[in-house]
Amino acid sequence: MKKKTSVGVHLGHHEQLVPFHDCDPLGIVWHGHYYKYLEIARTDLFHRHRLDVADFMAMGFRLLMIETRCRYAFPMRFDERLSVEARFKEIEQRLLVSYEIRNLTHDKRSARAWTTLVVTSNEGEMFMETPREIRDRILDPAGAA
């Protein structure tokens, strides 16, 4: 089976300390907060490719999240440092973004995750392939911020 490679040259990235309010009564980050960390890294990834919400709307497009998945491997606790990297894995029919969350305090992977987004028109019509304008921004390293 052929291994898929990442698209584009830029990664989205986010680092922070785990805040107390993200932890459950056991002092471990509640699983739902991982998605917040993913969203911050994905937003950074899209910004680096000039694909902010305003950019999509100016081109006449919107994004629709159709699937998300997270596989947890090692816990994160209050005041530990975390890092999230986001990268495009597929861009032809959909935008598949993969993530790796690391517990930097323990130098271990905490989770791997995926989100799948599709492009729609501003009126809500779903495209069966990612429009060329969006793919060009992802593939063109010179055009990325």
Task: Write a compact overview of the structure shown.
The protein is of the alpha+beta class and 145 residues long. It has helices spanning 33-48, 53-58, 132-139; strands at residues 7-17, 61-72, 81-90, 95-103, 108-121.
* Average pLDDT number: 91
Give the distance, in angstroms, between the N- and C-terminal Cα atoms. Answer: 34 Å
Name the CATH architecture: Roll
Order of secondary-structure elements: EHHEEEEH
Return the domain count: 1
What share of residues is helical? Answer: 10-25%
Secondary-structure-derived class: alpha+beta
**Main pleated sheet:** 5 strands, antiparallel
Radius of gyration: 16 Å
Low-confidence stretches: none
How do the strands line up in the largest sheet? Answer: 1-3-4-5-2
Global geometry: elongated
Number of helices: 3
CATH superfamily: Hotdog Thioesterase
How does this model look, in words?
This protein is an alpha+beta fold and about 140 residues long. It has one domain (about 10-140): Hotdog Thioesterase (Thiol Ester Dehydrase, Chain A). The protein contains three helices and five strands, in the order E-H-H-E-E-E-E-H. It has helices at about 35-50, 55-60, 130-140, and strands at about 5-15, 60-70, 80-90, 95-105, 110-120. It is elongated and about 45 Å long. The model has no long low-confidence stretch (mean pLDDT about 90).
